[in-house]
Amino acid sequence: MKIKLTTNKISTTDFIKRVFFLLYRAAGPEYGMGIYRRKVNATEDDVWQNVCTAGDYPFETSKERAEQRANSGEFYADYCFGRMLKFGCDIKNDVIELRVNDEKGKYNSGFQGFANKYPTPLAIVVAVMDSFGLGTDAYEKRE
Questions:
Q1: Domain boundaries, the chain
Q2: pTM value?
Q3: Strand order, beta sheet including 95-98
């Protein structure tokens, strides 16, 4: 799903930061080895930093790749503080694309921990807008 914000109350970065934060909160709890990456009471800025630096992967190449992607407007979180997200989005020319790999346009709850709460990109967009006190007039869909 692609959208363009039609409000100046939030930036595209504010929007994307909130997306990852809401998905992180919905994806809990941590399982298996993820408990070693857990961060109790992670803030939105903590989550954003983790996404932009591949914080759950201590390897230098992972961090470099994450920073290169972020600099080009591509954001992806495989795991964030031990929670499985496997979610990505892009920003190009102020158009935000929330990626989904399923042909039906739904996220897979088997490996995307947030999918039970946010099954579609539209559900994510609505939740983010609600969290900022904005309605559906704050964005427009793009193809």
A1: 2-142
A2: 0.91
A3: 74-80, 83-92, 95-98, 2-5, 139-142
